[in-house]
Amino acid sequence: MRKEFFIVLLFSVLFWACSTESESIINDSAEAVKENRKPTGASANDLLSNNIYKKMIVELAYIEGFEPTEEAKNNFKSFIEERTFKSNGVELYTKLIPDTGKEVYTINDIVAIENQYRTYYNTQNTIAVWALFVNGKSSKDSDSSFVLGTAYYNTSFVIFEETIRELSNGTFEPERSLLESSVIHHEFGHILGLTNLGTPLQTDHEDADHPKHCNEESCLMYWAAETSQGIGNLFSSNQIPTLDSQCIADLQANGGR
Asked: Which residues lie below 8 Å from residue 101, measured CB to CB, with a gap of 6+?
């Protein structure tokens, strides 16, 4: 199931829905690849808990010129450590990918890039995550709706970095690192099984009108801030939106922190 994080511009109203390698052995066998090609949310417990996988590797792949900010990388690592149990730690690696020549990407395009360039897959004690930052727009964009990110496999998501750059660091726009972090955390939240996407609900807080999102307006997993004032409120404290208590309770019940 694909979960998407949107920013919608309508008149003056802004809506948003939503290194080097360290392991000596890289497991890219057919069976390992299969384990990283499941539906979004299917590995929520494996990602959250310390039961099977004691370590997490996150491969941050980016098209040349579109690497996420250092702040966003650090924020992402902190977010993972805050919400998951990994006794052997969490490691982030960056991977440069040559320019594809594309300006618009379909999910099939994104999957093809992952198939060609992904390095890390699950090993016996390590679970691997792939995050791709691209230099073009989503094929699902419209004149008023822009996709910023999509979680499309159990350990894979894409960030449309070019779009994020166009919608940040300007007048009345959030800082780039804040917007990057918000989208990254939101999409990672989906592969952690939020909301009701592999991590069972402990209370009824799924948005009926926007499935797999939280109905709490201040939550990271809320689908939208429906007015420009709402976006202002979201970043008014110059901080990344956080998970509300209901989403945290869901993660904790499924093996997380």
From this structure: none
Whether 40 and 190 have beta carbons less than 8 Å apart is answered as yes
CB 215 within 8 A of CB 222: yes
The pTM assigned to this predicted structure is: 0.89
Helix intervals (H) in the chain: 30-35, 44-48, 70-83, 107-117, 161-166, 176-191, 228-234, 245-253
Which phi and psi (to 5°) does residue 151 adopt?
-95, 120
The amino acid present at 251, given as its one-letter code, is L
- Cα–Cα distance between 16 and 12 in angstroms, integer? 13
Burial of 173 per CB tally in 10 Å (0-12, 13-18, 19+): middle
pLDDT digits (tens, 9 = 90+) for 70-127: 999 999 999 999 999 999 999 999 999 999 999 999 999 999 999 999 999 999 999 9
Burial 42-51 (b: 16+ CB within 10 A, else e): bbbbbbbbee
Tokens of 138: 């989503």
Q: Is the peptide bond before 242 cis (omega within 30 degrees of 0)?
A: no
First to last CA, the chain: 24
Q: Estimate to the nearest angstrom the gap between the alpha carbon of 12 and the chain centroid.
A: 27
**CB atoms < 10 A from the CB of 56, how many?**
23
- Residues ≥6 apart with Cβ < 8 Å to 102: 109, 134, 135, 136
